[in-house]
């Protein structure tokens, strides 16, 4: 696996990385738009996962998992209807940032994975990483920041 041409950007994440309150769980809980380019020709599917490694839990906190994203997709946004896995709020779909008050800055990694085989079902983040590590052709990420 490597980072080569695959890119993920977001018009909703500022140059300083800050996510606005509209993307937070207690704000609008609206996922930021993600723009994807440079998908490898041999990829058959994309997956997108948002993870907060700063959460005070052993494995961090997963906020969003999307599977079945076609390789010709150039933007993912609030109206996207791809297969959603469970986030760590135990709900399908996007669950915005909600770090503990006073815990400092949390960094939200929005990962895009180009895969050599399709994902079956809607695995949790760790299941996906363990079960599909061999299928990741390329990966890349953009990082958002939020604090309460």
Automatic annotation (TrEMBL):
CDD domains: PEBP_bact_arch. This is PEBP family protein. Pfam families: PBP. Signal peptide: none annotated. NCBIfam families: YbhB/YbcL family Raf kinase inhibitor-like protein. It comes from Hoyosella rhizosphaerae. It comes from the Bacteria. SUPFAM superfamilies: PEBP-like. Belongs to the UPF0098 family.
């Amino acid at each position: 696996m490597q980072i080569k041409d695959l890119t993920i950007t977001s018009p909703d994440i500022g140059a300083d990385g800050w996510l606005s309150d509209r993307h937070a769980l207690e704000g609008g809980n609206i996922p930021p738009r993600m723009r994807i380019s440079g998908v490898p020709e041999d990829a058959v599917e994309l997956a997108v996962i948002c993870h907060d490694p700063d959460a005070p839990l052993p494995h961090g906190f997963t906020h969003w998992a999307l599977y079945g994203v076609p390789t010709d997709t150039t933007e993912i946004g609030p109206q996207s209807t791809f297969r959603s896995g469970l986030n760590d709020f135990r709900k399908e779909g996007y669950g915005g940032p909600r770090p503990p008050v006073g815990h400092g800055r949390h960094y939200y990694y929005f990962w895009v994975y180009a895969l050599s085989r399709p994902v079956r079902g809607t695995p949790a983040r760790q299941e996906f990483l363990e079960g599909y590590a061999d299928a990741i052709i390329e990966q890349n990420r953009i990082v958002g920041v939020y604090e309460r």
